[in-house]
Write a structure and sequence with these properties.
Number of strands: 0
Number of helices: 7
Distance between the termini: 43 Å
Structural class: mainly alpha
Order of helices and strands: HHHHHHH
Length: 206
């Protein structure tokens, strides 16, 4: 079952079920996809309007980038759930011999690393949305400025939510260098993600 192919109602009901996936990681990817979609929409609503002639070339570029990111985030929805399912499958491997135990442990570690890397990529990529949101908020169709603001809010939620899912997986990973590297790279992004969102919201004058 491809989660991204479900109806909105179907996806929400699947999330609300007793199945642990889709979970927070997939929702973070969905937030990012929603953010990218809103940015693309504002850019499209700006294109072809004579009064916004000065920003036509930029909005064309923004629309293309946002649309490509939207598709990438939609793919991450299923990639995140798939990574979680691989962890569950690894835990079900046999452990009746020492050799089997070692193989099972290695499989669990590999699957957990993947389960950390997927939401890391979601958060890292979602951070790119702020620059696009700024473009549509400042130079896009002002009638859709609040859509740009919601895009910025969803981008922040995507980054924060994705990284929470990275951190919970890092607690089970024994590779200290891997853990420290991801923590360092997340900290660099998290250092200003809240400020970037607030700065954009302050530019929305209603």
């Amino acid at each position: 079952m491809e989660l991204k192919k479900l109806t909105v109602e179907g996806f929400i009901n699947e999330t609300a079920s007793s199945s642990p996936a889709p979970g927070g990681g997939s929702i973070a990817a969905l937030n990012a996809a929603s953010s990218a979609a809103l940015i693309a929409m504002v850019a499209q609503l700006t294109l072809g309007k004579e009064k916004y002639a000065a920003s036509q070339e930029e909005m064309q570029e923004v629309a293309g980038k946002a649309s490509a990111l939207k598709d990438q985030f939609l793919a991450f929805i299923d990639e995140d759930s798939s990574a979680f399912n691989k962890i569950m499958a690894a835990f079900k491997l046999p452990k009746d011999t020492d050799e089997a135990k070692k193989a099972r442990s290695a499989a669990i570690q590999d699957a957990t690393k993947e389960a950390a890397l997927v939401p890391f990529k979601v958060g890292q990529t979602a951070n790119e949305l702020f620059a696009l949101a700024e473009a549509v908020i400042l130079r896009g169709n002002p009638n859709a400025v609040t859509d740009g603001a919601v895009a910025a809010m969803n981008a922040r939620a995507a980054v924060r939510g994705a990284f929470l899912n990275v951190k919970i997986n890092l607690g089970s990973i024994k590779d200290a260098l891997f853990v420290e590297e991801l923590k360092r790279r997340m900290a660099e992004i998290e250092a200003d993600v809240d400020a970037r969102e607030q700065a954009l919201l302050q530019k929305v004058k209603l």
